[in-house]
Amino acid sequence: MERGEDGRLRGEITMADDWTTADLRAPGPPARPGPPGSICLTLHTAREPGAGPPDFLVCATPPPTGDELVGRVMRDRANGRPRTLTGAVATRPTARTVYLRFSQSSLGMPASLRFSAEAVTRAARCPRPLGCRDTAPDAPQATGLTLRSGALPG
Fold it and tell me: Is the pTM of this model over 0.70?
């Protein structure tokens, strides 16, 4: 994670192997596919990692068709599904990597945060509805980032 020159935050998630957008799509008949997989940054601004859900998720998910990933910033909730707050920009610079760019203001302008990455796939062998999950660093660990405050764009 870092702050870009434009003031937005940028998270980079690199996998061990190449992957495609299709790898995130749920198996099943086209008329009734399951929920898609996702690649997410889990962000803790107030809650402690491992003590409950993260405060925010910034995720890339596959669209129903095509290869462009859909990025969004969501507020995670202990008693319900995450609520989308705003969009995020998801790009693929390599066959193993996704970048997620988003504004610090979408998180409420925290002075610092703790983060980790999570990939969820919905392959046939994965349990429903949770899917197969992989985290880095291993859950519940997280890495810290101190953010500058002030009148920066984003």
Answer: yes
